[in-house]
């Protein structure tokens, strides 16, 4: 019975990491942007633009993963720039501009993607790390994954370390807490926020690239299926802390994989309800977190969503 349990558990855990990887990238990018006081609701649109750019680049280079990821990152960063110009240079409403970016990304990716519907890629094989991949249960889960999953671990470590331990992280937090004070002591607030927004766009682009080139190596219109919105919600769920965001991403990924396995096991629950479970779980968790207002207020960047124009 124990062996049978692990036989079913290991594939679920392996799938959880893959399903969570796009959320890790997109969520970390949004977290960094929000740390500087900028909320970008265009994550879904940037992911889709990154996904189609990565897929087109990979198809043009016969499935080159590195080219696809780079193209996705560049496309996501380029998509974030108009949002930055509108909100940081012109003082436009951040929420409205982010929603416009999502709508734009949906339309642009669908238009470009028409030419790539019939294509597919061979995908990416997992890389087993010697010795570590042989550890029972945990070995196959954490040390027999594709290269992008490993990259998500490294990215999480770098972002968490930068925000908590470096001068750059201190500056990012200072800009998010009080842009006026940061400007008064000589920090280029607008330039720092531009950097954070572009970084967030690049990360969202990589998240989309993972979906189209690795996770499901083909192009499907609106293939992000709301993951961009989940990534934005995860930042709140995590109360702007990278480790909690990572756990939240894995929670969502786990529920996603569980509902797929439940369908495979023939669980007598309507498939539509099973498909909705990851989103229901996210909403429930957010409701529970939002009840603790002191925790949210303690970690919420004070200038989040508020425009700042030097000399304005």
Describe the structure.
The model has no long low-confidence stretch (mean pLDDT 89). The radius of gyration is 20 Å and the shape is globular. The chain has a single domain (2-299), classed as ABC transporter involved in vitamin B12 uptake, BtuC (Orthogonal Bundle). α6 (147-165) crosses α7 (167-177). The protein is mostly helical and 312 residues long. The protein is built from 13 helices and 2 strands; from the N terminus they run ααααβαβαααααααα.
What is the count of distinct domains? 1
Instruction: For the record, give the distance between the C-alpha atoms at the N and C termini, rounded to a whole number.
Output: 68 Å
Series of secondary-structure elements, N-terminal to C-terminal: HHHHEHEHHHHHHHH
Major β-sheet, in short?
2 strands, antiparallel
Compact description:
With 312 residues, the chain is mainly alpha-helical. It has helices spanning 2-35, 43-60, 65-89, 94-113, 138-142, 147-165, 167-177, 179-184, 189-215, 227-237, 242-264, 271-290, 293-299, and strands at residues 127-128, 144-145. Keywords: Cell membrane, Membrane, Transmembrane, Transmembrane helix.
Based on the model shown, name its key terms:
transmembrane helix, transmembrane, ABC_transp_permease, mainly alpha, 72% helix, two-stranded antiparallel ribbon, ABC transporter permease
What are the SSEs and their pairings?
Blueprint: H1 2-35, H2 43-60, H3 65-89, H4 94-113, E1 127-128, H5 138-142, E2 144-145, H6 147-165, H7 167-177, H8 179-184, H9 189-215, H10 227-237, H11 242-264, H12 271-290, H13 293-299
Antiparallel strand pairs: 1-2
Helix pairs in contact: 1-6, 1-9, 1-10, 1-11, 2-3, 2-4, 2-9, 2-10, 3-4, 3-9, 6-7, 10-11, 10-12, 11-12
């Amino acid at each position: 019975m124990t062996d049978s349990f692990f036989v079913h558990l290991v594939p679920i855990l392996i799938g959880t990491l893959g399903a969570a990887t796009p959320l890790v990238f997109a969520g970390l990018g949004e977290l960094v942007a929000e740390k500087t006081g900028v909320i970008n609701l265009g994550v879904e649109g940037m992911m889709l633009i990154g996904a189609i750019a990565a897929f087109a680049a990979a198809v043009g280079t016969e499935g080159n993963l590195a080219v696809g990821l780079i193209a996705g990152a560049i496309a996501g960063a380029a998509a974030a720039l108009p949002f930055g110009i509108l909100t940081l240079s012109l003082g436009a409403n951040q929420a409205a501009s982010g929603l416009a970016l999502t709508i734009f990304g949906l339309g642009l990716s669908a238009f470009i993607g028409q030419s790539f519907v019939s294509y597919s890629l061979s995908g990416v094989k997992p890389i087993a790390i010697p010795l570590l991949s042989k550890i029972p249960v945990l070995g196959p889960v954490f040390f027999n994954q594709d290269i992008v999953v490993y990259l998500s671990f490294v990215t999480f470590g770098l972002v968490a370390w930068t925000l908590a331990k470096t001068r750059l992280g201190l500056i990012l937090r200072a800009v998010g807490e009080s842009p006026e004070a940061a400007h008064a002591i000589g920090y280029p607030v607008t330039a720092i926020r531009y950097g954070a927004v572009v970084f967030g766009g690049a990360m969202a682009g990589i998240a989309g690239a993972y979906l189209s080139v690795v996770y499901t190596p083909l192009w499907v219109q609106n293939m992000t299926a709301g993951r961009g919105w989940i990534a934005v919600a995860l930042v709140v769920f995590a109360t702007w802390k990278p480790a909690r965001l990572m756990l939240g991403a894995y929670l969502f990924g786990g529920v996603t994989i569980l509902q797929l396995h439940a369908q495979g096991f023939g669980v007598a629950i309507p498939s539509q309800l099973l498909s909705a479970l990851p989103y229901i779980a996210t909403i429930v968790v957010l409701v529970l977190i939002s009840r603790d207002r002191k925790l949210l207020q303690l970690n919420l960047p004070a200038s989040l969503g508020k425009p700042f124009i030097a000399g304005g």
